[in-house]
Amino acid sequence: MAQPAIIELKGVERHYQQGERKLIILSGADFSLKRGEMVALVAPSGTGKSTLLHTAGLLERPDGGEVFVAGRACGKLGDDARTAIRRNEIGFVYQFHHLLPEFSALENIVVPQMVKGLSRAEAASRGAQLLDYMQIGHRGNHRPAELSGGEQQRVAIARAVANAPQVLLADEPTGNLDPKTAHYVFDALEALVRQSGLSALIATHNFELAARMDRRVTLADGKVVPL
Ligand code: ADP
Ligand code: MG
């Protein structure tokens, strides 16, 4: 039997009420991310990329339709079950790094692992490995404010995969970086995803980076369509 997609959206609806007006962002959106696949989500600002990623990553509940993670329907699950799936299976990278400002780079990667139950020593060992892999091992003791934008995003990527998720969802992860830095950060992200067999859905405005992924999708009339 074919393996289920790691993430699947079926007929997803997402609407916002803005005063009198109903904004229809996702309307019958279908999308399937296969295991090991890297997909770019390329669409103009305001079309619903973040909404799609948050819905796929169980950060928001859809108004209709269903989201499956590793074949499991998540709509009727309670918040605790959804949080557990998110913690174990899904890594999220934002445009702004969202690192904890009072903690060092390494501690930012250690904390989520300890929340999951690893000892500090185990978590620190994996954290150091990940920082090395992202080529910022020498910056582990620095706080986010002491790091460059590119370094902050590399730490954020390392943190997102700290608990060995099956899928990485990245919302314009290089959107705040200059083109050259964006390229380096993206190289590191791509190498990490390919090497670990992760699946990834990455929202980006960068066509050159999008061209390197397995396929590209966009949003049109609230649906996910090939680009
Ligand atoms: P993108 O990431 O592609 O820029 P978003 O998913 O952030 O798009 O937003 C899509 C649309 O939904 C935008 O018009 C945005 O203003 C609107 N929107 C997003 N979140 C909310 C919210 N919580 N309440 C009302 N409108 C929202
Ligand atoms: Mg967005």
UniProtKB/TrEMBL annotation:
One of its GO terms (biological process) is protein localization to outer membrane. InterPro entries: AAA+_ATPase, ABC_transporter-like_ATP-bd, ABC_transporter-like_CS, ABC_transpr_LolD-like, MacB-like_ATP-bd, P-loop_NTPase. Signal peptide: none annotated. Keywords: ATP-binding, Cell inner membrane, Cell membrane, Membrane, Nucleotide-binding, Translocase, Transport. One of its GO terms (cellular component) is membrane protein complex. GO terms for molecular function: ATP binding; ATP hydrolysis activity; transmembrane transporter activity. Residues 7-227 form the ABC transporter domain. SUPFAM superfamilies: P-loop containing nucleoside triphosphate hydrolases. The keyword Cytoplasm does not apply. Belongs to the ABC transporter superfamily. Macrolide exporter (TC 3.A.1.122) family. This is ABC transporter ATP-binding protein. The lineage of its organism: Bacteria, Pseudomonadati, Pseudomonadota, Alphaproteobacteria, Hyphomicrobiales.
